[in-house]
Structure formats: C-alpha cells, structure tokens
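Subject: Protein entry, chain in single-letter code together with its fold tokens

Area: Proteins and the way their chains fold up in space.

Attached in line: The record itself begins immediately under this heading.
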Amino acid sequence: MTSAMHHEAPIPGTYMFDGKAAMKGYALNKMCYSLNTAENRKEFLKDEDAYCTKYGLNEEQRKAIRDRNVLAMIHAGGCIYYLAKFSGMLGLTVQDVGAQQRGVSVEEFKKLLKEQGE
C-alpha cells in the first residue's frame, strides 16, 4: 500500500505508523527495545525518569510513560511491537491496551469481546 493510498482511505480510529511516526518515536522505541534485557528492566524500574533521560524521551513521551497510557505512547510515535515489551513489563494485558484504544474500561472491553464472540 502506498503512502497516498492510506491517506486517501484511512481506517476510522486507526493511527498510522509511518516514517513520520517512526522518526517522532525513535527515542521511545529505542528505549522500549532496550527493555529486552532483565538488567535494563531493573534499571528502568529503579528510576524511570533517569532511564527516560538516558534515551532522550520528550515530555509527551515521558507523560505517556508516567501515565502508563499505551495509546498516548502510540500517538507519541511508539510502535506497538516495541511497546508490547514495556506493557508486559508493567503487567498490562492485551485487554488493558485494547480498552485504552477503545476509550472504555477494561471490564467494558471484555464485555464487548464476549459479545462479539457470540
């Protein structure tokens, strides 16, 4: 799919992760990738702010990290594949992230999934 195609016919409610988003989220994604090692996860949990500084996160990205808001991280240039490591480290489930993306509570999201499966 070309860039022109996805901008002409966007999927409602979808945030496109394209080159512009990748550049915007480079520091955030690099930091999340670093969390593949136990040593780095320990360092992050010891002092989140210092770890964010180490990777050069901007204020929008830092706020999303502090708030544990994965949707805000996506809007700050985060790639869901890198954010999955961060989310899992903090104990956020796929349902937690899905609820954030839908703008509903986790319980409402689970109910919606159950209804769609019936």
About this structure: The CA atoms of residues 27 and 55 lie 6 Å apart.
